[in-house]
What we know:
The complex is a heterotrimer of chains A (258), B (261) and C (323).
Chain A: H1 7-24, H2 26-46, H3 61-92, H4 94-101, H5 106-134, H6 142-170, H7 176-188, H8 202-209, H9 211-224, H10 230-257
Helix pairs in contact in A: 1-5, 2-3, 2-5, 3-5, 3-6, 3-7, 3-9, 5-6, 6-7, 6-9, 6-10, 9-10
Chain B: H1 7-23, H2 26-46, H3 61-65, H4 67-91, H5 93-98, H6 104-132, H7 140-169, H8 172-176, H9 178-187, H10 201-209, H11 211-225, H12 229-257
Helix pairs in contact in B: 1-6, 2-4, 2-6, 4-6, 4-7, 4-9, 6-7, 7-11, 7-12, 11-12
Chain C: E1 4-11, E2 20-27, E3 32-36, H1 43-50, E4 58-63, E5 66-67, H2 72-78, E6 79-82, H3 94-104, H4 109-122, H5 138-150, E7 156-160, H6 168-185, E8 188-193, H7 196-202, E9 205-210, E10 213-218, H8 220-227, E11 231-236, H9 242-249, E12 253-256, E13 263-267, H10 274-283, E14 288-294, H11 298-306, E15 321-322
Parallel strand pairs in C: 3-8, 3-9, 6-7, 7-8
Antiparallel strand pairs in C: 1-2, 1-4, 4-5, 9-10, 11-13, 11-14, 12-13, 14-15
Helix pairs in contact in C: 3-4, 4-5, 8-11
Amino acid sequence: MTRRRGWTSAVAGIASRQTRVLLKSPALLVPSLLFPMLFFAALAGGLAELARVPGFDYPAGYTSFQFVFVLFQASMFGGVFTGFAAARDFESGFARRLLLAVPHRSAILVGYVVSAMVRAAIIMAFVTVVALLAGLDLIGSPLDVGLLFALALLSNILGSLWALGIALRFRTMNVAPLMQVPFFVLLFLAPVYVPLDLLSGWIREIADVNPVTFLLEAGRALLVGEAGPVGTAWLVILIGGIILGIWSLTALRSAERG
Amino acid sequence: MNGSPALALQVGAIGWRSVRRTLRQPATIIPAIAFPIIMLFVTSAGLRASESLPGFPSVSYFDFALVITFMQGAIFATAGAGTDLAADIESGFLDRLALTPMSGAGLVIGQLGGAVVFGVLQATFYLAAGLIGGATIAAGVGGVLVIYAMVIVMAIGFGAIGIAAALRTGSGEAVQGLFPIMFTLLFLSTVNLPLDLIPVDWFRWIATVNPISFLIDAIRSLIITGWEPSVLLVGFAVALGIMVLGVALAAVALRGRLLRT
Amino acid sequence: MPAIEVHALTRAFKKGPRAVDGIDLTVDEGEIYGFLGPNGAGKSTTVLMLTTLLPPTSGTALVAGFDVVKDGARVRGAIGAALQEAALDRFLTGWEHVRLQGALHGMSRSDIERRGGELLDRVGMREAASRKVGGYSGGMKRRLDLALALLHRPRVLFLDEPTTGLDPQSRAALWNEVARLSRDEGVTVFLTTQYLEEADALAGRVGIIDHGTIVAEGTPTALKAEIGRASVEIEPHEAARLADLERTLAQFGTAIAAPATGAAIRLDAGVADVAPIVRALDAEGIRIHQLRLREPTLDDVFLEKTGRTLQGSGDSAAEGDEA
Lengths: 258, 261, 323
């Protein structure tokens, strides 16, 4: 890489390198595809009986209900795994070379984020195909369904920025749990198994204010073409993106300082 | 010249080291204890609606779900015992031990001893969390002792599988690769709902034949039902079977790794 | 009885060439034997076989009088080894390592405390031994490693590249201790190294191994004497006179490799030729900018036997005097 690279070509270069690494490495690619499948099987398959809980009236059925969760989970965790890749790059010294070679360092961040979105798109496509075979029912209009996928894809950015912020601050794979666990717990403090109005107790109170709840409820609404907190969901993406963007940019500064 | 110490002394020395080493890694212990407890509270709160399903046992979902912690603890035993030994192989520490009169059996049993001690520690935390969360153990104090017995057998069995993987591959990463496999097995079982509340045919079939389901049902029966001898016997039989398999795999792998004459 | 007796020892792996290809060697009791060779020569494999950690494919080896294949346990009882990575557990303290090792050797608790304390004092690690190994420097780890290897009073000590990566002070300290062990306690030391200096300084006899076979063996002095003659390297004051310099030097010996700014020859008559050379150059009006006289090194021995120089000898500067 020469110092003359423009910002866009730096982003493209980093993104394409990350994507190539992923696609060439079955040990990385296969788990990314398999895990969402596992979740889907366990949730839609193992918990299908929950559709018979009094008050559960999702028009598209339990499989479709769980599809939305799996879609968002796969997308957001695709972002978190990109943080792993960045941490590994720091451990191996490759990231240091990037910092030296790329004049506008924000390109590094954006490059990773773009590669995460590519990864998420691949996983989401795979999950959707399998779900369709398993009985997924896309009732909503093409626009609604399109918005659902757009929302899910953009939620990937939140996962990436969070994980990249950790990776750039600590620059070691030892903090992989720190990237995963808070996100995992946040995800499960949302209406995963049943709709929001069938939750009760302390978890209902948390879920009511959990940003992930709005994403899931909006997604589920879009899938069946019903009204839902879609506007709030976009706001979650926007505000979350800004906050986590600052989080990761400040982390980039700390990485530059070494 | 010093003699070869008795097996018990070897096991003691290796086991003591294993325990000490584990306790000095808070970054590993705390997640291993905390994560299952967090997930217990979160999952059981999220799935409370299951209680209103016709056919669901007449207990709180929390009581129903408590068993998950013990299963997750067992999975951590696999990763923990295996990762430690893999680290010893990678660093050459195993060679250092191999140069002493230590026997292969002493090594494996000692490492497993460490896994058992940690397993018992984890189980104590999980039981405490369960009681704090309001769970009742239907089989009482006797039931708690039986749970500990299951935990010990599972720690040995799953730990031995991890040790076998470590001896075979010599790589910590490969041992970590067991994690997702074990998690998959855990998911495709009766961990979340009883067998007769799983309507999806292929899933129910897998859950029926999955050995993990038998382990889950045995421990769960002590918590939510009381004394069910047939369920317990089957559960223990499966646990012992896994133990025998694990130890056999470890013994074979040991022969391939410890080439000393 | 020799401490180590090796005959036609071979180790072949399933794929690729033999790591050790039929070596013979003998090490007397109390001797320090240096096993010198580049990376991949077969040094570590040899040590693994002699310490019973790897069975040989063929050949025999007796260590401390016991057969490494048939009497592995007895061999292990009689030897100590500090192998290539100071294989320590970073979560344990130095003392915990001592106690673990002692317990596994069947030593009594009081013996472990006494002997362990003595050794830790000897290697200067008594204070650090109550701290976890994770915080030790490379030199400290090596010293602990040595103490652990000696804990059960072995008669034969194997050291596999013991000073790789150490700073000069730590290296010197380790050398002193190894020399003392041999001299005062009669411990036989089998030492592998890539460093010429180390073999030169410590070893009573040296075996040079390359591609699994021993290409030369003897005392360092004898080996170097075999190669024989000293060489001299001269840089003239004026670069233009280089050709004249080369012509003049040609009378005193055979040309060898030299830097671009000078010329070098292997002296036919040895050191005695230096004065005549200086006089000859003076007569030609060639002013000398630098003159270096080199005695042959083990690297030269290696070069002579294998056609290559020893890698990893970067620490040893060219010996000799500068004018």
